[in-house]
Design a protein that fits this description.
heterodimer, A: about 80 residues, mainly alpha, about 50% helix, flat, B: about 220 residues, Alpha-D-Glucose-1,6-Bisphosphate, Chain A, domain 4, nine-stranded mixed β-sheet, phosphatidic acid transfer activity (chain A), TP53-regulated inhibitor of apoptosis 1 (chain A)
Chain lengths: ~80, ~220
């Protein structure tokens, strides 16, 4: 899958590949040490953050955490 | 006026398989509308994995909405929490930009099926809202149609990816829905609004939409 930054796709692919291997072979088996992909993530992030700025993306909106916060939507009460 | 929708789907793949497939969902033959996907945050907290991804998709605005939204792409933030111990994956997506015109929030909780430990249940909820005065009914109709389509894409596309990744698993899937609400694909605004009114009359509570994969 492409990155939002055209020049980031290669870095993204390298990171994604590392992550998926780590996720399947380590994380799902209980190993939470994710250092192995950190160097890939770092260079990819530098690229993608720059691309987000170029696309005028509202970084504040993106950085907001909603899941698990008070802002998270809740289902309406069931009135059966 | 927030509209709420929910539906449940069963994937005949284990939770571990679904959790792995989740990161490889795009591209797939049902995801032509997804233009880009980036991980922009990732951290381990306790035993859980917290991830935030930014997706850009082509904007499918209905004719009557074009006056309000002229962007050709929509940006979506997807937060997720993966808990490998409890085997729970929660995803929460929201659009950024144009939230006053239409705000769409979707939450999916993937857990191990109680029926079969080798299957995974996806409980999907959606909240659709608009602050444009007088658009409530049209938004509801559009939202329902969009939700139904997204269901198909989610189930159909995800299933395609899972089948490719894990060809030895069973590929059929079943659906459990409390009710079936169908809308035709090319309905006019008037029809949509009427249908929405009927729906609103017939149901005071949440709307249950059925997911019909591989049907357009």
């Amino acid at each position: 899958m492409n990155s939002i930054g055209e020049n980031c796709s290669e870095l993204k692919n390298q990171y994604d590949h590392c992550f998926l291997t780590w996720f399947s072979e380590k994380f799902l088996k209980g190993d939470t040490n994710d250092e192995v992909c950190a160097p890939f993530f770092k260079v990819y992030q530098q690229c993608v953050k720059k691309a987000m700025k170029e696309h005028h993306i509202d970084l504040k909106e993106v950085e907001k955490d909603v899941l698990g916060s008070a802002d998270e939507h809740a289902p309406p009460p069931k009135n059966t | 006026m927030v509209k709420y929708f929910e539906t449940t789907s069963v994937f005949r793949f284990s939770w571990d398989q679904v959790a792995q497939g989740f990161w490889k969902r795009y591209p797939n033959p049902h995801s032509n509308h997804v233009l880009s996907e980036d991980t922009i945050f990732r951290e381990i907290r306790g035993n859980k994995l917290f991830t935030k991804r930014l997706l850009t998709k082509t904007n499918r605005v209905p004719k009557w909405g074009e006056h309000f939204v002229n962007a050709r792409t929509v940006k979506i933030v997807e937060e997720s929490i993966t808990d490998p111990k409890e085997k729970v994956l929660i995803t929460y997506t929201r659009n950024i930009g144009y939230v006053r015109v239409m705000s769409i929030v979707e939450k999916v909780v993937y857990t191990v099926s109680r029926e079969n430990p080798n299957w995974t249940v996806a409980e999907r909820s959606a909240w659709i809202d608009s602050q444009v005065f007088g658009f409530g009914r049209a938004i509801q109709a559009f939202g329902l149609e969009r939700f139904r389509k997204n269901c198909q894409q989610m189930v159909g596309g995800f299933n395609y990816v899972l089948t490719t990744m894990f060809p030895n698993s069973t590929t059929t899937l079943s659906h459990m829905t409390s009710d079936e609400v169908m809308t035709s694909k090319k309905e006019t605004l008037k029809d949509a609004a009427k249908k929405a009114t009927d729906l609103a009359k017939s149901k005071a509570g949440p709307i249950y939409a059925s997911c019909q994969p591989n049907k357009t």
